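Project outcomes to date are best conveyed with an example. Our students and postdoctoral researchers have been running inverse folding experiments weekly, and each run begins with a structure described purely in tokens. The record below, which covers 278 residues, was selected by the lab manager from last quarter's runs and is presented without edits.
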């Protein structure tokens, strides 16, 4: 028996247009947006029609991503900044609001990875990791929340890590910062509920980025283990035995930033191929 599907072509066009403009008119600010996960997030937000301010310490990187977003037909802004510094964060928020009138979406993605066990860990490294990974999101949230409270609408998505939920030897500073970010997300979600603002965190597993690949290359040189062997070793930490792509993170951010996710707040959502299941 043959089944026929009577779907009008013009309805499909309307559906496609609706999906691709779910964030039209919204302004998003993405930290650590110059490459990797941040770039993937910025592109996905732009594909849904959002204006995007891309923030990073490296000006050439954010300029390149901002141009990519402009090529998609949205307005974009490249801002070089160190989000661990309060004065710079205030400047970033104001510059973004001056450009588009307000800020609707904040993605705290900028992060610093510091390897070392507690015994012998350099305090300067500990301070730097926590300043970027935990204090930075605090400063960014505090800077953008007045805009969100005033308009009674906002979305904040903090990029934590699967290693914020499970220990990994030698990652004391990084793990601590990412677990702290999950806790911060939950507290802030309670504070902002009356203003129709949702705050959530995403906990990725191993994501295929230049940063991760450089880390594996470094580990290969240090341990003498073949690069491919290490690649497979880390991949197998996921029951799906694969890497996560930056775009997968970006699409989850888009969903959490949309009106479809109104009832989701204070959550820490794993996207790890089953590496973490709680």
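After processing, the design step wrote out the following sequence:
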């Amino acid at each position: 028996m043959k089944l026929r599907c009577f779907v009008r072509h013009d309805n499909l066009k309307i559906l496609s247009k609706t999906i691709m403009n779910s964030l039209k008119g919204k302004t998003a600010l993405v930290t650590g947006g110059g490459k990797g996960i941040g770039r993937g997030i910025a592109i996905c937000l732009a594909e849904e029609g959002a204006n995007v301010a891309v923030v990073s310490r490296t000006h050439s990187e954010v300029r390149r991503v901002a141009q990519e977003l402009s090529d998609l037909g949205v307005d974009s802004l490249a801002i070089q900044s160190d989000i661990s510094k309060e004065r710079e964060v205030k400047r970033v928020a104001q510059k973004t609001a001056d450009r588009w009138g307000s800020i609707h979406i904040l993605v705290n993605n900028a992060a610093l990875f510091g390897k070392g066990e507690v015994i012998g860990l350099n305090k300067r490294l500990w301070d730097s990791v926590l300043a970027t990974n935990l204090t930075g999101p605090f400063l960014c949230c505090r800077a953008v929340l007045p805009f969100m409270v005033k308009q009674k609408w906002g979305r904040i998505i903090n990029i934590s890590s699967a290693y914020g939920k499970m220990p990994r030897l030698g990652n004391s500073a990084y793990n601590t910062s990412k677990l702290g970010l999950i806790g911060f997300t939950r507290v802030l979600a309670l504070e902002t509920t009356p203003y129709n603002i949702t705050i959530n965190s995403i906990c990725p597993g191993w994501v295929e980025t230049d940063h991760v690949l450089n880390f594996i290359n470094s580990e290969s040189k240090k341990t003498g283990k073949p690069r491919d062997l290490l690649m497979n070793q880390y991949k197998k930490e996921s029951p799906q035995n694969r890497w996560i792509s930056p775009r997968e993170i970006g699409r989850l951010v888009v969903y959490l930033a949309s009106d479809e996710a109104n009832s989701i707040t204070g959550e820490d959502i794993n996207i790890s191929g089953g590496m973490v299941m709680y």
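The chain has a mean pLDDT of 91. The longest helix spans residues 123-151. The training component of this project remains on track.
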